[in-house]
Amino acid sequence: MKKVLSVIAVLTVAASCIFAQAVQEQKPQQKTLTVYAYDTFCGDWGAAGSVIPAFEEATGIKVNLVASGAAIEVINKVRLEGKNTECDVILGITDDIADKAYDLLESYDSPYIQTIDERYRFDAQNRLIPYDYGAFAFVYDTESKIEIPTCLADLTKEQYKDKVILIDPRTSSVGTGLMMWTYNALGDQWLSWWKTMSENALTTASGWSSGYGLFTEGEAPIVISYTTSPVYHVMWEDTTRYQALLFTDGHEATIEAAGIVKGTKHRSEAEAFIDFLLSNAQVDLANANSMYPVNSAITLPAAYDYAPVPEKIYTGSSEKASELLKLWTDAIVK
Does residue 115 share a domain with residue 94? Predict the structure, then answer.
């Protein structure tokens, strides 16, 4: 009798194990996605705080978000990791550094591309898909009581000595945008401007976060940023203290985009993420990034009334930016 009971017990345990294994095999695995993004997107006040949870709730896909420095550093991280990278999507790559990323990315013809104004679609192969845009501008602190500069050349004057914060074109897309701006606005004098400003500026920060942080801490009353930067301060701090300056020599446009990394094992999840950025996330991206949505049908809050719109806008190719960066490095870096 004991032997019979023992056999029954063993069979029961075995059956239980088989049933548990079957249930486990039937249970769908959690879908995941790894996104490399620039630090500002991932920060406490960045768009990730609203965009990522909303995407996870809407799709059931778990996002592993990796802060990877400035936009150029995001590209470099994927390149250095090569085939071993776990990255599925890169985020925050701008049009002026796009050529540094194209070979790392796969094309994706999202159904939402038709909602993007053609002016902002800079990659015909859709390896980098725009999700917001803006224009570079110098932002100043109205409480500083300094005389307001009206053009790029004004900043080289002695009265602005140690009062301007620049950003390095080698390490930041904002710095690259400033470089393109000076080239398009000043022509042959663009390198002379940088040589003078390398002495006149308080510092050349490595990225937008560090540079703008120094500005809001009161280290200098002027910083390179965006025409839309005041929107953040109006929306979240209820202040118009910081204002963007419109210069007579025009302004450089910037377009932020996302792309799917070659060889991703989560292609469908990556596509879902891109689609989400172009649809449900457009308002959150615009508000958190203080940029404009690429979908012109989106209604923006009243705070955007404090973002001045330049009459003259420059757009530059990434191929030209690469050429200029070499000239800039040879002339400015000591």
Answer: yes
For residue 166, report the phi and psi dihedrals to the nearest 5 degrees: -100, 175
Print burial letters for 316-325: b (CB count within 10 Å at least 16), e (below 16).
bebeebeebb
CATH of the domain at 266: 3.40.190.10
> d(Cα 150, Cα 140) in Å, to the nearest integer?
12
Domain with 90 in it: 32-133+255-306
Model pTM score = 0.76
Cβ atoms 331, 156 nearer than 8 A: no
pLDDT, residue 246, reads 97
Tell me the two tokens of residue 149. 């500069």
The residue whose two tokens read 């017990």 is 9
Same domain, 317 and 202: yes
Position 59 pLDDT exceeds 50: yes
Same domain for 321 and 245? yes
Q: Where are the alpha helices (DSSP H) in the chain?
A: 2-26, 39-42, 48-59, 71-81, 173-186, 190-200, 208-216, 229-237, 267-277, 282-289, 318-332
Total number of domains constituting the chain: 2
Same domain, 124 and 190: no
Highest mean pLDDT among 170-174, 268-272, 318-322: 268-272
State which amino acid sits at residue 35: V
The tokens describing 75, both together, are 């590209």
d(CA 109, CA 92): 18
Of 41, 75, 110, 121, the C-alpha closest to 262 is: 75
In a domain, 7, yes or no: no
Instruction: Show the tokens assigned to 89.
Output: 């999507």
CA dihedral sign of residues 165, 171, 177, 180: positive
Mark whether 113 and 173 lie in a shared domain: no
